[in-house]
Amino acid sequence: MAFTVSPGVVTREIDLTTIVPETGTTAGAFAGAFRWGPVDKIVNVSSEDLLVENFQKPDSSTYLSFFTAANFLAYGQNLNVVRVANSSALNATTDSANTVLIKSDETYYNTYYSEFGGSPSNDFGVFAAKYAGELGNSIKVSICGSDIASANLTGTSTIAFDGDEGTVTGTSTLFTKELQVNDQLKNLSSSVYYVVSAIASDTSMTVRSSSNTDVGSGVSMQRMKSSHFQESSTEVMGTVQVSDSARKVMTGTGTYFDLQLNVGDIVTIGGERHKVASITSNTSATLETALSPSNGGITASVAYSREWEFSNNFDYAPLTSDFAVRRGVTQDEVHVIVVDEDGEWTGVKGTVLETFPALSVASDAKSEDGTALYYKEAINRQSKYIWWMKHPTAGAASTGPNTAAWGASANSSLKPAFTANRINFSTSMTGGADGQTLTDADKILGYDKFKSSEDIDISLILGCDSSSTVVSYLISNIAEVRKDCMVFCSPEQSDVVNNDGAETGAIIDYRNALSSTSYAVIDSGWKYQYDKYNDTFRYIPLNADTAGLVVRTTLERDFFFSPAGFNRGQVKNVARLAWNPNKTERDLLYKNGINPVVSFSGQGTILFGDKTLLAKPSAFDRINVRRLFITLEKSISAFAQFSMFEFNDDFTRSSFVSAVEPFLRDIQGRGGITDFAVVCDESNNTQEVIDRNEFIGSIFIKPTKSINFILLNFVAVRSGVEFDEVVNVV
Questions:
Q1: Is residue 548 part of a domain?
Q2: Could you write out the DSSP letters of every residue in 199-246?
Q3: Is residue 315 part of a domain?
Q4: d(CA 652, CA 638)
Q5: Could you tell me the pTM of the whole model?
Q6: Which of 144, 474, 574, 676 could form a disulfide with 605 if both were Cys (CB 3.0 to 4.6 A apart)?
Q7: What total of structural domains would you count in the chain?
Q8: pLDDT in tens, 488-534
């Protein structure tokens, strides 16, 4: 009793309500080749739609893996998938000269994210595809920087021209702090316009102008309003005409296409909008589409306007965020867009995949609710297609205190304007590779993710098209070590597809390459099913269906029921079987522990056996018995953990028995076992056992058996004979 100094009442609680919870036994496990998704990482999927979302639609290289997973999900909703890739797998990047493999989120953050010890200093460009694969090569990323307001420049200038390029010498000027290449300037004395082509220092730069007249000292200049997003005809220099026979070549007068245009920009000429396909020179660019025939070409020079290729996907130009405004900082906003350039994702070229409006290049920028607005953080958090790798060169700061590079803090006491060079960053990704041709060693490494029962709960391992080498490994190194799951396998495709007359022997040879075990199941072959994603038919192994039938049986009846037969063994999505064994062939298969899958006329395709690969006669040579014991062992073992570090005394032993017996009684009432006994007392917990710090509970089970063979006796009886006279004779 608790210690008290004076008389009183002390209360305490003793919990005797603990029960044995029944553990789940429907979780599948699979490792295979896919077009997209993290590599060497377990991803749980609950439907075919989520399978597509995480790993993308199948192609001619990945359909076996995809439909193995999809077929299992047709029966259940709990599959753990590992994408396996060989050493050639690569993420697409925005720098074609360098390659990288980023297997998963963990790889990215640990390697390239400074806050987790990684480094953003890399040679892979501004962005990389989220995952390895050729699908990444269809991704295009574009960034639109903020608008820049017009402003009078500090100091005065002198301009000396050599041809159409002039050297500007400044007095008390701040060219590196107030200007960027591509800015348009206005001579406030003469209203002549210039375009900045290079900046050497605060007092020296180079400009271009069609009015190449030298200008003496004392000239004041104005930087004109500029926009990545959209510029009117007054904000781009020169005029254009499109008068070639193809109605595609845009010829400029007084233009600076190389400075003021980007490939992909939309230009409006004569009321028509066209995309720029290429830029040849200051005065020549080619449009992606021709002017309409009704227009007939533009022979006389007209003004033109330009806009960012993706301006129609956003409601307004990026400017300055409220976060930056409150801190006296400007020009921090950017728009980012991710596009399916080649149509590999959506089937339609140029489809927009993601938009990220009004992000900030300030590292500390946040929205009103505290969510990070910093474009690096927002993209990494939200994008399904890309990782941020480093800032574009265009985001580097000019020298001096008045500009800040992308990634700087908006809380700087210097109150900078963020660099917003007048070039849109727009790039297509390249270099992605699938790494889909898997060796046995590759597959084994993928399945190794399921080795630890403490890390991942699984019950059914899908073999897909694995060789006997891989299946043997799954049995010996995973299933028989964990002892809480079963391997489901099929013979190889060549055993049953176009192997007329030799199927039985080939399948038996495959089975004989595997060991005797109650932790594995083999079926008789492959099915032909429709691939809706590619409008064709495919041969797919049946092991995912067999495992799926086990799941469906568990969900609809119970875990200790056989999944075979006409009541519960109906296989889905079968156009036809690659091989439909007859009775003689089924007899040979079953003798060797192989479960036939049979198409019966008018009755569908049926799993027509429920054997494990255990060669010796035993209750454990049946799927339902092995499943029964796996579930009982998992459930009672999980409960037994609560006896750890308690005393091995009558109280602990009685508590164990009082919890296990009702659990088994419930299983018995549901038909899973015919009888049981639980012994946990001094007879098996002797003093020697107690001294070894051990605890023993012996659980005796009589499992219920499934019917595999039916004998029907039809007896003809003479008239006048009572049935009770002959019943016992037969």
A1: yes
A2: EEETTEEEEE-SS---EEEEE-EEEPPB-SSEE-GGGS-SEEEE-STT
A3: no
A4: 16
A5: 0.87
A6: 574
A7: 5
A8: 999 999 999 999 999 999 999 999 999 999 999 999 999 999 999 99
